[in-house]
Design a protein that fits this description.
Layout lengths: L1 H12 L9 H12 L4 H52 L7 H8 L1 H25 L1
Length: 132
């Protein structure tokens, strides 16, 4: 108990006097800012920030590609449905011409080939635009 009082008295007697104005803190902050920053601390933050930015860009591109693929599929479905409806409505059931009878017999195959070509053409176009 006695030694603790002695230590406290010694610390109080020998304490450093700090001025009451802000000049001391300003000088302290200025000197702290002049100290060199360790390279490991400064680069790690930059690398982590860059990785976060890259992750955000990657996720944005992924969402954009998903939306493009969905839009492409919906557009292809709409075009193919229109082709089938037009082909079904325009081709008469009873015909006297052999060419029209051939079209009526194979109209599902022809409409399927046309629809398949539309899907392939749009897919190639989308692939070229996303790759380039």
């Amino acid at each position: 108990m006695e030694t603790e009082k002695d230590i406290r008295k010694f610390m109080q007697d020998n304490k450093i006097s700090v001025p009451q104005d802000d000049a001391f803190i300003e000088e302290l902050v200025r000197q702290i800012n002049l100290l060199p920053t360790p390279a490991s601390l400064s680069e790690a933050d930059t690398i982590q920030d860059n990785l976060r930015i890259l992750q955000t860009i990657r996720m944005t591109i992924k969402k954009r590609r998903r939306m493009q693929a969905l839009l492409l599929v919906l557009t292809d479905i709409a075009i193919c449905a229109a082709i089938f409806l037009i082909g079904h409505i325009l081709l008469p059931v009873t015909t006297s011409s052999s060419a029209l009878q051939f079209l009526h017999t194979w109209h599902y195959l022809l409409l399927g080939l046309i629809s398949l070509s539309v899907v392939i053409a749009s897919s190639l176009n989308a692939w070229h635009s996303s790759v380039l």
